[in-house]
Design a protein that fits this description.
This protein is an alpha/beta fold. It folds into two domains: 130 residues, ATPase, nucleotide binding domain (Nucleotidyltransferase, domain 5); 83 residues, Nucleotidyltransferase, domain 5 (2-Layer Sandwich), CATH 3.30.420. It is built from seven helices and ten strands. The longest helix is centred in the first third of the chain and has 18 residues. It is globular. The C terminus is likely disordered.
């Protein structure tokens, strides 16, 4: 059995995965409370699935981009569990998890996470001839710049507020397909499926080397002089 942990954003999600199937899953609004809510909810999930943590033989974690505190909690918890259980870990892009829920659409898929300050974190993925892959790597941009680059019909998913949806549709017209609100919820079950594929190939991450993908340093780590210049 494998465990998937996603605390990238205020919406947290965990899942248990076995033999290619989601055994149990829990998704909730955690806000900034990942530190105090993650482990109690993991215990609850194991109890509901009548499972033992010692039966976990692999852990998948969403490595970002996302919130600084959320990613730190998720990645550090995953590493600690891997060390305690002696099992491998794989880190998966949070944007890829968001996009993978829509893999069967055959359209290019553009996941969006709110990066604050009017900016967004995004990437581009697509299922081509049965092969899932990334077309554009994770990066920070603005909605305006993103729209200028979109030449083909694309499905947008993730953190899309009504104002952003209206902007995408207004600038791109029929080229913008906006996923329904319920379908935009990022679930750990999709993280588990992506991670399981890597685990089967023996494609593990080095516990000491895996770090959260922030795309840019959190403000608290920026030198004061640089902050003043900005």
């Amino acid at each position: 059995m494998q465990l998937a942990i996603d605390t990238s954003t205020p919406t947290a999600s965990i899942a248990l995965f076995q033999e290619g199937e989601v055994v149990a899953e829990l998704t909730w609004h955690s806000g900034q409370n990942h530190t105090v809510e993650l482990l109690p909810n993991l215990i609850y999930l194991l109890q509901q699935a009548k499972a033992d943590l010692r039966s976990v033989d692999g852990i998948m974690v969403a490595k970002g981009p996302g919130s600084y505190n959320g990613l730190r909690v998720g990645v550090s918890t995953a590493k600690g569990l891997c060390l305690a259980l002696g099992v491998p870990m794989v880190g998966i892009s949070s944007l890829e998890v968001t996009a993978f829920a829509h893999a069967q659409t055959a359209l290019p898929i553009c996941p969006i996470h709110n990066a604050g300050g009017g900016e967004i974190a995004t990437a581009l993925y697509q299922l081509r001839r049965g092969v899932w892959g990334r077309l554009v790597e994770e990066h920070i941009t603005t909605p305006e710049a993103l729209c200028r680059r979109m030449a083909t019909r694309t499905l947008f998913c993730g953190d899309i507020a009504p104002a952003l949806a209206a902007q995408l549709e207004g600038q791109l017209g029929r080229r913008a397909v906006i996923a329904q609100a319920a379908a935009r919820l990022r679930r750990a079950g999709f993280l588990a499926e992506l991670g399981w594929r890597r685990l089967k190939r023996g494609d593990y991450d080095d516990l000491s080397a895996l770090e959260p993908l922030y795309l840019r340093r959190p403000h608290i780590t920026q030198p004061k002089a640089a902050a003043r210049m900005r």
